[in-house]
From TrEMBL:
InterPro entries: ATPase_YchF/OLA1, G_OBG, GTP-bd, P-loop_NTPase, YchF_N. The lineage of its organism: Bacteria, Candidatus Falkowiibacteriota. GO terms for molecular function: ATP binding; ATP hydrolysis activity; GTP binding. Keywords: ATP-binding, Coiled coil, Magnesium, Nucleotide-binding. This is Redox-regulated ATPase YchF. One of its GO terms (cellular component) is cytoplasm.
Amino acid sequence: MSLSVGIVGLPNVGKSTTFNALLKRKQAAASNFPFCTIDPNVGVVNVPDERLEQLARVSKSKKIVPTAIEFLDIAGLVAGAHKGEGLGNKFLSHIREVDAIIEVVRNFQNPDITHVAGKISPEDDIATINLELIMADLQAAENRLNKLVKDAKSGDKKLITEKQVLEKVKTELEQERPVRDMQFTDEEKQAIKPYNFLTAKPILYLINVDEKNQGIQSPIGNWIPKQTPHIIINAQIESEIAELPES
């Protein structure tokens, strides 16, 4: 069983470069214009596990099938994506299908690589992407609630529970609070599971830096929601290292 991880972010932040580094090969094109990626690039990486090798030796198994992670390099989102801006609806649908999200955030200067907002502001970029994901979830919740208002009158317990939990989700999303930060009972979790809410998915922030600010930690903690994991890498360097032949 593999885990699918979507790599998201604004255009020109290093998503495809990160994707190539993870796969240790140049599979995705990285260009200096928005929407270089339209359909997701997909790659699978096997995860080595010494325990599997030990079990194989004990059981004398000739075949080892490691856990795999499927990475999807998803096209850049822009402000207004939930309204369809920049093919946003299509790209958001790709995110809905993954199990977890890596959000690539640009924190490097390069005059040859344009930024869609015309300036480098990691804090603004994070806010833009997070708002688009929240608004897409809010839209999905509202659309379903409009139908449930009538259907729940039948007295069906499942529909009533679904309506109640969606009203709860809607209220929290309107406060720009992601679904992953909300508390649900087991019954409520089952009721909203089919919606695949974008902001319910685990997220890792990947801060893409250059050599000048590679060691800088602050004020990164101020940009990212509290208790959310993040890593700092130079995706370009990592991609170049990944392409080197193994000795």
